[in-house]
Design goal:
mainly alpha; single chain; 2 helices
Amino acid sequence: AADYASPCRFASFLQSVTRVALQMKSVRGQKNETYTSVLNVVSDLQEFESSLEVKLRSMRVSLRLLVEEARRLTLRVAKEWELRELAAEALQKVQDRKKTVESRIAAVDARYGSELEKARQLAATTLRQLQRVEACHFEHLASYQHLPPPVVR
């Protein structure tokens, strides 16, 4: 028993215990570092998740706004298309009426064309003659007095 508890063995035992304690301390430090780094990574991931949630919410809001805008534009395009169709129908009706009126004018011209041309020429000649009349002729006309109506008994 005296050889077993010799100072050399005791020193060796203390060195072993010290090495074990140092290794345990080193392992504990590594654990603390790992734990701290894991906590940092977890907090970074939580921040990233919250930023992603904020972006997702904003994207959803933007998407809703885009859907509403698309709906409004679709309705506007439908109204414009309907107005275009109505305008095209109205234009077609006006063109048909124009053709009808032109055909009636052509028929009237064919029937009364020579008479209308004569009336136009007469009106043009009369206007030219009226332009040639001098002011003194109008004064003579203004001085003309009509006879009073006859007395009936």
